[in-house]
């Protein structure tokens, strides 16, 4: 009896290790969500100290709720930044859906960082002649504020908000920048 049980468990074990089902659209989105980088996690996902952050609450009258953001002033790759947003704030890199929030995030980031650019949660990739854009929190892509010549179409890129003028630029995802989480 016991041997049978073990055999069943072993088979289940083998089964759960078999290759995943064919990719669904969501799976493709998930693969896109975090562009691969050098895989060097190190301790870069440690939670920021309070002295390394600035929080910001933005009432959203339409949705009758308040969006909370935190600007993290220490520099991380895009992937590590998203890992910090998830683990430390149960959030995501920020998505931006209107000029008002873009300007609020820009001005706060400008006050507390000196890098000139901060990560926001947009990722882009070329598809044929166009560039497809998405937010890592999977919210709708219904607003953008690209600098002239952006987003770049020569590969996958992550997106930084320029703190001087609020426009967005494509930046190599491995670059280490301050970042903005929403939670
Ligand atoms: C854009 O999408 C966001 C997230 O889904 C939503 O909250 C916002 O109201 C939308 N804005 C417009 C102008 O459609
Ligand atoms: C905003 O500033 C960045 C960085 O200084 C610059 O590259 C970009 O062209 C500017 N964008 C606009 C729309 O002026």
Automatic annotation (TrEMBL):
Residues 63-182 form the C-type lectin domain. InterPro entries: C-type_lectin-like (IPR001304), C-type_lectin-like/link_sf (IPR016186), C-type_lectin_CS (IPR018378), CTDL_fold (IPR016187), Eosinophil_major_basic (IPR002352), Snaclec (IPR050976). Pfam families: Lectin_C. Keywords: Disulfide bond, Signal. Residues 1-17 form the signal peptide. GO terms for biological process: immune response. This is C-type lectin domain-containing protein. The lineage of its organism: Eukaryota, Metazoa, Chordata, Craniata, Vertebrata.
């Amino acid at each position: 009896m016991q041997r049978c049980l073990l055999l069943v468990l072993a088979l289940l074990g083998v089964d759960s290790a078999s290759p995943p089902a064919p990719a669904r659209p969501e799976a493709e989105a998930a693969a896109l969500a975090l562009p691969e980088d050098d895989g060097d996690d190190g301790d870069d996902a440690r939670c920021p100290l309070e002295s390394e952050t600035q929080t910001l609450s933005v009432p959203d009258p339409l949705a009758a709720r308040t969006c909370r953001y935190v600007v993290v002033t220490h520099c991380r790759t895009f992937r590590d930044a998203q890992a910090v947003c998830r683990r430390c704030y149960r959030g995501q890199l920020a998505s931006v859906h209107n000029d008002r929030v873009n300007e609020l995030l820009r001005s706060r980031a400008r006050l507390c960082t000196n890098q000139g650019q901060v990560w926001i949660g947009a990722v882009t990739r070329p598809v044929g002649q166009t560039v497809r854009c998405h937010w890592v929190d999977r919210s709708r892509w219904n607003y953008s504020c690209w600098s002239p010549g952006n987003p770049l179409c020569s590969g996958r890129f992550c997106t930084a908000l320029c703190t001087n003028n609020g426009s967005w630029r494509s930046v190599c995802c491995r670059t280490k920048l301050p970042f903005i989480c929403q939670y």
